[in-house]
Write a structure and sequence with these properties.
Order of helices and strands: HHHHHHHHHHHH
Strand content: under 5%
Largest sheet: none
Structural class: mainly alpha
Shape: globular
Number of domains: 1
Length: 293
């Protein structure tokens, strides 16, 4: 079935994790939650589940899992960082579900983020534990690259919620662990973390801002995603995808800032702020229809 792409990505991913790392607790925990989200999302693709029920289940899983995951990898976890990390994972994890509105978009964006994470895990400030885990995001990047061959426009198979939910969760966990490991952060690390995840952050901010202005629920589906706005403005789907992935490739390359003086990070952050500010303004000018109740 076309909406079983998530199963096709995450079953091999979990099998390869066990093959490469064996069965340490962090792999067991990651497999348990990613597997549960894959099942929940796939069930929702076949027999829709109420949005709030699905959201509360995600929150419960992350609230239980993330502190355990951090505890396994770090013997002295910081409680405040754990709480902030859990909130960030919930928000960003659902952001991946929001960008999954166009052929190849969620898988392509995630592909570049995972490649960036592979390099980030080997940055100068990374601990030995993190360096040992670097192959995990690389495995996911390889699977997403293969999936993208079939998911590009016109797609023959889709991630669906069975793919976007665990994908958002796993990628957000990988980023959160890197951020946790890097604390206290340098300017370079803050800029790179924001840059790499900025397409998802931008989507969440754009959609949330306009839905709140129009009195729409942030949990309700609507045609106001950045990709759908571009299509409505007359862009062809392949053009939207290639442009988005081109931007993601540049953002992924920003990991090189970790090896450069902080001045370059300040300059890049200014350019990034202007780029997203202009993009937000231009996209906001594109009118979108209201939600059909």
């Amino acid at each position: 079935m076309p909406y079983l792409g998530g199963v096709g990505v995450f079953i091999p991913f979990l099998v390869l994790l066990f093959a490469f790392f064996g069965a340490p607790w962090w792999v067991v925990l990651l497999a348990a939650v990613a597997g549960t989200l894959t099942f929940l999302g796939t069930f929702d693709d076949l027999r829709p589940v109420k949005v709030m029920v699905k959201f509360l289940l995600e929150v419960a899983l992350i609230a239980l899992f993330y502190p355990l995951f951090v505890h396994v990898l770090d013997p002295r976890p910081d409680v405040v960082l754990i709480i902030l990390g859990a909130v960030g994972i919930v928000v960003l994890g659902n952001g991946f579900n929001q960008i999954d509105v166009l052929d190849g978009l969620a898988s392509g964006v995630s592909f570049f983020i995972c490649l960036a994470l592979f390099v980030m895990y080997q940055s100068p400030s990374s601990s030995g534990t993190l360096i040992d885990l670097a192959v995990a995001p690389l495995i996911l990047a390889g699977l997403l690259g293969g999936f993208l061959v079939f998911n590009r426009p016109p797609a023959s198979i889709f991630l669906g919620d069975g793919g976007s939910l665990p994908l958002g969760f796993v990628v957000s966990i990988f980023l959160a662990i890197w951020i946790f490991d890097a604390y206290p952060w340098s300017v370079q690390e803050i800029v790179v973390a924001v840059s790499v995840m900025s397409p998802v952050i931008f989507e969440v901010l754009l959609v949330s801002f306009h839905r709140s202005r129009r009195g729409w629920s942030v949990f309700q589906g609507s045609p106001d995603h950045f990709a759908l706005r571009l299509v409505r403005a007359g862009w062809k789907v392949p053009r939207v995808l290639l442009t988005a992935l081109g931007v993601c490739a540049v953002l992924a390359a920003s990991v090189g800032l970790l090896w450069l003086p902080s001045l370059f990070s300040w300059i890049f952050s200014g350019v990034l702020f202007v780029f997203y500010g202009v993009a937000f303004w231009l996209l906001s000018k594109i009118k979108v229809p209201g939600i059909t109740k």
